[in-house]
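I am still getting used to backbone structure tokens and would like to learn alongside you. To get us started, please write out a protein record for me. Start from the sequence, derive the backbone structure tokens from it, and show both lines together. Once you have written the record down, we can walk along the chain together:
***
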Amino acid sequence: MFKSAIRLFSSHSSTKNVSSPSTKGLRNKLGILGVPFAKGQPKPGVDQAADVLRQHGLISMLQEYSMGNLLISDYGNLDFQHVDDAQTPAQYRNMKNYGSFMSCNTALIHKIPQILKEQDQFLCLGGDHAIGFGSVAGHLRHTPNLSLVWVDAHADINLHSTSGSGNIHGMPVSLLLQELRDFWKHAHLDELAPNCLRADQLVFIGLRDVDPYEAYILKKLGIRAYAMDSVDKYGIAKIMEMTLDALDKNNKIHISFDIDALDSRIAPSTGTAVNGGLTLREGIYIVETLSETKRVEGVDMVEVNPSLGSQTDVEITLSAVLDILKSACGGHRRSGNHDHVDGSLLKK
């Protein structure tokens, strides 16, 4: 049902300014990049999400809710080389599709700084959450002083040696952390991604399906991980207050949002849906609160799979995604936004 959208957008390779001419010269510039990578997990279809979101009106919606104050450039979908995954280094044989993962994320690491040279903010549309490595590592290349908020049902912090499944979408955070860099010596990360993220600048929100070794790593490194029991205990407003207190106020912020952070009734079309998740209101509150800092420079939206579930399931999921993104990138506020109103109209 979405084949026409896929044909329309899958060939994008050059930048397209998709805003109206009247938006020239505005300060808020957003670059959108699709990353059609699906090999971090076993379910096909997640690589179609960026194209389907475009077809579903993502760009026009962002422009509408920004009230014309957003200059949007669509960079199309990331080009990366498809490689033979049989060539995985012996040390990483437990990892499925290691070669494809490294090929995609290497290209992404080099692409993100290029986008940020031209834009104020970028939006990466996955793809599965394995792209979170390349998106954040590329962001760190441009902006070394960076804080990361990982909104997800899963911690995605397994090492190659601790993963039970071998699926790389459960490992990207461990590749980013300074404190875990020694476990990835054979990936040559010092050359590819020289700037690491400090564990004290990482916050998880929405966790509810954490592997035993992941729980051990979170505790050992003292990472702030606000699972759903914490959200239930404190409420999302307090969670966000504690999150902002934890983040260095001089840092830019990267939001990596896995749609399975939301409850499976709100976002059913995703590969690893988990019951008991965030409500849509809580998800919106998270990105609203972070956006209000004026420090958000990068956003990922991942694990949307339009091939899973019924037509209704897909529509519900896409609607939730658009609601999150209009607050994360489009400047929408539920209380209203008068930043660009001409106040002289009310002067006597």
In short: DSSP finds twelve helices and nine strands in the chain. The first strand starts at residue 16 and ends at 17. The two ends are 56 Å apart (CA to CA). Strands lie at 16-17, 29-35, 71-77, 121-126, 146-151, 202-207, 224-227, 252-258, 296-302.
